[in-house]
Amino acid sequence: MQWDIFCRVVDNLGDIGVCWRLCADLANRGERVRLWIDAPDDLHWMAPGALQGQVPGVEVIHWTEPMTRSVDWLAANVWIEAFGCDPAQECLDALAAHLRSGGRAPVWLNLEYMSAERYVERCHRLPSPIMTGPLQGLTKWVFYPGFTSATGGLLREDDLEKRQALHSPSKWLEELGLPLGSGRRVSLFCYSPEALPQLL
Predict the structure, then answer these.
(1) 3 touches 77 (CB < 8 A)
(2) What is the β-pairing status of strands 32-37 and 2-7?
(3) Mean of pLDDT values over 5-16
(4) Less Cβ around it within 10 Å: N or C end of the chain?
(5) What is the pLDDT, as a whole number, of residue 183?
(6) Which of 64, 73, 70 is nearest to 94 (CA)?
(7) The pLDDT value given to residue 143
(8) Count of Cβ atoms closer than 10 Å to residue 98 Cβ
(9) What long-range pairs does 37-42 form, CB within 8 A, spacing at least 24?
(10) Hey, is 56 helix, strand or coil?
């Protein structure tokens, strides 16, 4: 199938990381994917070769406003708007024109953030109807990744367990120039809340 994934980079590059891993996983399964992204340059170090079209099955499109490339309707089976970003206006307009000429709408997913909160099971797969505008009557579907069978699950590469088994924490710490001591280590990724120094 043809998949279009729309990504606006907000901060910390987690959004582009999730979208890239999803693109690569779909392409690895034989799917065709277009990644529409407003900050593609970060893929240079994250996924070398992605911007040069060296990843079979994935096309990276620089999402500018307005779009600098022509967006005639390119038939897609699935649209994924990552983390609540609306697709490019030109894509919405092209879809509306496609529907007016009798074409079919793609399955439209709103990929949400992964969470272990209880509400994820209640919200996963809920419909989100479009109530106004030229796309009125279409439905987006909420997709929540999560940790239970009632959610969308986890995005993991096929060889993840093998790579984890080969990972050497002591070698990794050594490469980072960190001490190997026998004390407790905690890896923390977060914003900088006021209580962080007290916690540390």
Answers:
(1) yes
(2) parallel
(3) 88
(4) C
(5) 78
(6) 73
(7) 97
(8) 18
(9) 37/6, 37/7, 37/8, 37/9, 37/61, 37/62, 37/63, 38/7, 38/8, 38/9, 38/62, 38/63, 38/64, 38/65, 39/9, 42/9, 42/13, 42/16
(10) coil
Residue tagged 């992964």 (tokens): 114
- Report residue 120 as tokens: 């994820």
Q: What are phi and psi of 109, to 5 degrees?
A: -110, 140
Q: Which pLDDT belongs to residue 148?
A: 95
Residue 182 one-letter amino acid: S
Number of H helices and number of E strands within the chain?
7, 7
The Cβ of residue 62 has, within 10 Å, a number of other Cβ atoms equal to 15
The pLDDT assigned to 182 comes to 76
**Residue 36: is its pLDDT beyond 70?**
yes
The length of the chain in residues reads: 200
Q: Give residue 180's pLDDT.
A: 80
Which tokens go with 161? 């367990």
